[in-house]
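Whiteboard transcription, Tuesday session. T.W. wrote the structure tokens on the left side:
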């Protein structure tokens, strides 16, 4: 059973959205998880923009990296430089991919302006997971 892990700093936005899209796009036999170097809680704006795409991630939890899961992954995708730089060492058999995405949680301005940043990052993640699916399926 193929296994994938999406990692970012706080497991609150990017990696949660990636997990949601991967669960929708990748085959059902894939084991899919996300985690962070730290836990910052699930960002409500991430939940909101994913719901706009018909994906409910409201039950997802912010989790720390599970070393055992990490060591048995086929693919580890880091979604920020912090996760890439601080990710524990993985076996050489693990394919490591880095997607340097803007952290939407750092967006400022009105809620409308912040939601625009969340939507932009959400759409970038969706596009990348669709491309990944074509490579691995």
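and on the right, the sequence the group agreed on:
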């Amino acid at each position: 059973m193929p296994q994938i892990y999406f990692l970012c700093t706080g497991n609150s936005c990017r990696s949660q959205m990636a997990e949601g899209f991967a669960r929708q796009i990748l085959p059902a036999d894939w084991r899919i998880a996300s985690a962070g170097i730290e836990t910052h809680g699930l960002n409500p704006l991430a939940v909101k923009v994913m719901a706009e795409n018909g994906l409910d991630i409201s039950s997802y939890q912010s989790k720390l990296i599970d070393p055992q899961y990490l060591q048995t992954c086929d693919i580890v995708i880091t979604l920020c430089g912090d996760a890439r730089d601080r990710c524990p060492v993985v076996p050489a058999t693990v394919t490591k991919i880095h997607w340097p995405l803007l952290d939407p949680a750092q967006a400022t301005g009105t809620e409308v302006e912040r939601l625009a940043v969340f939507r932009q990052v959400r759409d970038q993640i969706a596009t990348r997971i669709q491309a990944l699916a074509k490579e691995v399926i």
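Someone added at the bottom: The chain has one domain: 3-136.
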